[in-house]
Structures are given as structure tokens and as C-alpha cells.
Amino acid sequence: MSRRVTIAYLVGLVLLLLAPTLIYPILVMKVLCFALFACAFNLLLGYTGLLSFGHAVFLGTAGYVTGHALKVWELPTLVGLLAGTVAAAALGWVIGSLAIRRQGIYFAMVTLALAQMVFFFFLQAPFTGGEDGLQGVPRGTLFGLDLANDINLYYLVVAIFAASFWLIQRTIHSPFGQILKAIRENEPRAISLGYDVAKYKLLAFVLSAGLAGLAGATKTLVFKFATLTDAHWHTSGEVVLMTLLGGMGTVFGPLVGATIIVTLQNELADKVGSLVTVIMGAIFVICVLAFRRGIVGESLALYKRMIGQKI
Amino acid sequence: MTEIFGVPIQALFGQLMLGLVNGSFYAVLSLGLAVIFGMLNIINFAHGALYMAGAMLAWMGMEYLGIGYWWMLVLAPISVGLIGIAIERLMLQWLYKLDHLYGLLLTFGLALMIEGLFRDLYGVAGQPYSIPEEFSGAFNLGFMFLPKYRAWIVFASLSVCLATWYMVEKTRLGAYLRAATENPQLTQAFGINVPLMVMLTYGFGVGLAGFAGVLAAPASQVGPLMGSNLIIVVFAVVVIGGMGSILGSVVTGLGLGIIEGMTKVFWPEASATVVFMIMAVVLMFRPAGLFGREK
To answer: Would residue B22 count as lying in a domain?
Structure first.
């Protein structure tokens, strides 16, 4: 990480640790779950150039697996989280290895269609509870701390988010991450340099799916239930919007985007009803037409221009 | 009663017919997607929403203005086409030089807006739309009853597909279109107004979706959500068929509709997912699609 990113990271961490004194912790935890989801998604879209339109399925799958592991099998909390993450990564391997056979727009359509297939499976499968979802998932305890207490859980969620965020940064700046960027910029050249592009894409996909799964598993822990909504294509669209609005291919973009979208939905839900969808759609359109680098991307560009003028 | 594989023959043919009806919608919608993709290199995510808009317009015409089915079968596709032209002129045309993914994202946003708007106005519940008098009732074919309206859906969809095929492959306008798809700069240099053709192509493509919507209105409940689940299946159809040829999309659409119908008879639990499973298999063995070419 560059020095500036490290400082921003540490400042953010301190703010997060202090946040529950000011803000309702459940809301912050929801934002963090979606931020992790968006960061995982950004690893794929922003850094590898792959637009997956079915990422919600990993969020949903992990939610169900974790919920099932904690509620029915009564496993310890950490094992439950791990089970959800591994399940999402495994599903990511299956969907990823099919989807990387096509490129560009087709990749998006294939991921969307496969995700829809899994969605229908969840709709019918007995263990998901169908339309009702999986309710009453116990949070359990961790190192003797009762996670039913929101504040205890809050610090676990912050730890999970901070660790995952750090892992994503390490990945982006590692040699592996550089190759991903090379694939994004010029795939034929990456191939001609001797890289097994399919293998790198698949690995990025699995990593992204696993982290999205971790977000879903954590979300189940926070809300004590797992629902079909999490696996629906609407949620897949939301994560695309969060990343696009914040700035794809930027470190903090998905975090900013997720914060804005989740807060917005929270504020608007009971005020405008189904017009929320219209507003989300409008933000999409505006972003694509006028604002393609997103909030963080455009701010960085502006900042660089100002520095440039001074010199 | 006669049975085939332990299934009453009436039920079998009934599902076969339903499969053909669904397949006709797949065919018209994937044809529209393919025409638009060929010219604009954009996957039109708003296709399902505009299909829904076609059906809603038909219903609104009846409800508010008393305009009947036959007039709306002409007026609704034209209105949807005009909406499409407005979308192309105001938004899509600024994206052609960028990565194709932005077109997908923009039309996804539009789909959300259109769907949300109708949901806000009419709620999620479907509105009933009655079958036109001419087509109420059914033919008795001896071995089954064939509802007249279902036969009309299949006939009308296939006629539209054939007409489109004829226009693109056999007329002068179609030749311009194919030339502009192959090499826009060169076609422009020959004095053909390529931006105009792009605009009309998008209008025509979404007009097809509007037409399918009006056809669907009497056959199902008219509601804001009718397009969104359908469009994902149509995406899978497009991936299976590849977007290389018009007849390819028609054959793939109809074939998958029939397979889906048969799955409803023999393995009902899988009927919602069978198209996606086929897509996965096709991706494994023929990634470019059945009628597609690797670029």
C-alpha cells in the first residue's frame, strides 16, 4: 500500500472503532457488509475487467450455508462463517470456469443466467425456507464474548472488514494483481507474454466470490436471517451500481459507493416506496453518461489536475 | 385415454403448445437483441422492460382510451420504437466509442427506471386483459383442444421473424444494414447515413419487443414484473444460439421453448432452470454457441 492509502486506511479504522458511539451499529454493520461485497466485486470488475452480473448469488449462497451451519448444525460462529465463505468460493469456481469461456458482454450474460439458475434452486430447495427465508439464526459466542450483544458483534464485523480490505489491497499490489491489470488492459498481449490468462481470471473470480461470500456470511450473522433477496439479480445490479458510483478500479470507491447506496435506501425506503428503484436506475444512467470514473475516481482526477496546474 | 411414457397425450400436447408459445416469445425477443447487437454492439438490458411496456401500453389503451387489441398491436410497437429512438438519440449514441459494457450498464439502469415507474403507478399485481373476440375459444384437433389465441401467437411471431429475415437478407435496405454492421466507416463513405440506420435499428429492435409484449398481454397477466425474469432466460437463449444468424435465433428460441415445455411434463421441478442448464452444457462443448462464430 502506498503511504497515502495506509494513512487513509488507519484513519478509517479509527473512525469505524468510534462509530458505534454516534451511529446505530446495525446500520454501520450493514454498510460494512455491502462495502466488503462491493470491494470483492471491484477486484473483478475494476482490476480484472470482468463484469459479473450474478455476484449476488455468492452473497446469498454464503448466507444460507452460514445460516444453516449455525442454526441446524449448531457449529461455532467462526466455523459457520468459514463454511459460508468456502461454499461461495466453490460455487465461484464452478460458475467462473464456465463463464470465462466467453468474454465481454457474453461473460456478463452467462454469469447472470447461471446466477438465476442457482436462484431458482434456492427458491425450491427445502433448506432455504423458500420465500420466507432462513430465520432465527443464532449469533453464538466468540472467545467467551456473547455476540448477541450488538457492540461485541460490531467489533467482529469491523475486524472481518478490515482484514478483508487489507487482503484485497495486498492482492491488487501483488505480482498476481499486476497480471490481472495486464489482462484488463490488453488480454492478447498478456497471452502472448506467456501468461495462462484463463487460470488468472478463474483465480480472481474464485477470490472475489469467496470474499463476496464472506460478506454474505457476515450479513446473516448481523441480521440473524438469510433471504432470497440476497441472491436475486436486483442485488447483483446493486453491487454493480455501488462500484460504479464510488469508482471502479479505485481502492476506496466501492466503500464510498456502498455507504451512499445503503444509506440512501435506508432513508428513502419508507418515504418514496417503489420509486427507490427508479432513483437507483437514474443514478446508474447518470453515472454511465457523465460520471464514469465514479466519485473517488473523478475526485482523484480533479486533484491531479489541480496539482498539475500548480507545477 | 392414450398415454405416452405414462403421460396423458392431451397433457403432453398441451405443454408442447405452451412450449411453442413461450418459444415464440424467446424467438422474437432474441431476434430483437441480435439485430440491436449486430448494429450497436450493445446488449439491450432494457429489452424485457420495453416488452413489458408494450403489454402495459396495450392494457392502458384499452383501459383509458378504449382502443382495441388490433389497433394496439400496431400502435404499441410503434410507440415503444419511438421511445427506443429517443433513448438512442439522447443516451446510447454517446457510448459507441466506449467499452461495450457501458451500454449494458446504461440499459440496465433504464430497465430499472421503466420497471420502477410502472410499479409505482400500478403496483406489482397483474392487470387482466381479455383475449380478442376473434380468438376466443379453441380448435378441436381430435387428439387435443388448441386454444385459438395460442395458435395466433405462434403464427404472428413466426411471421414477424420471417419478415425480419426477409428484410435483412433480401432487400436493399437490408443490404445497407448488413454492410453497416460489417464495416460502418466504409459504408458511411459510400454515402449511406449510418447513424440514421443505427437509430432506426434500435427503434426496430425494441419495437419487436413491444410487439411481443402486446401479443403476450391476453395470454398472461399484464404486470410490471413480466419482463425482468423473461429477459434473463432470453439472455441464456442468446448465449446458447449465438447471435450470428436470424434464423439461428428463431430456431434456438422455439427449440428451447419446446424443451422447457417438455420438462414441465417429465421433470416439473427443473422446468425453471432447464434453459440455464442447457446453456452451461453448450458453454462446455461449444462456447461460441450453436449458430455463433468465434470472433
So the answer is: no
